[in-house]
Amino acid sequence: MPAIYALYVINKSGGLIYNKEFVVMASNNLNDTLRLASIWHSLHAIATQLSPVLGCTGIELLKADTFDLHCFQTLTGTKMIMVTEPATPDVDILLRDTIYDLYCDFVLKNPFYEVEMPIRCELFDSNLFNTINGVHRRWGLFN
Length: 143
Description:
five-stranded antiparallel sheet; Longin-like_dom_sf; golgi apparatus; transport; Trafficking protein particle complex subunit
């Protein structure tokens, strides 16, 4: 069954500015999450520089046996990383069109939010959870 496990947002400097788990994951503490963000930022930058393809923007998908890690980099360099069940459909569209729109509408347009700082916005949280729960319901995970 497809499922979305977590969403991480990394600023252009490589700092973790947002993380939410939608499904309980095995012993993932804050230090592990911070390590994941910094390692991903570094690997993404290295892949951009080493790629033989001109205009490469970095790693977009990492497949493992137990999860897929999808990455969408915005034009400003902010990275949105979504951890999903392997073979979850249309995650790139979900990240690019839906999650990024929520980020723009409820975080970037918030007059109290400072760019590159941790995201603490209740409207973003609630709309994100509603979106993810709607996707899970559509797939028949949580009725």
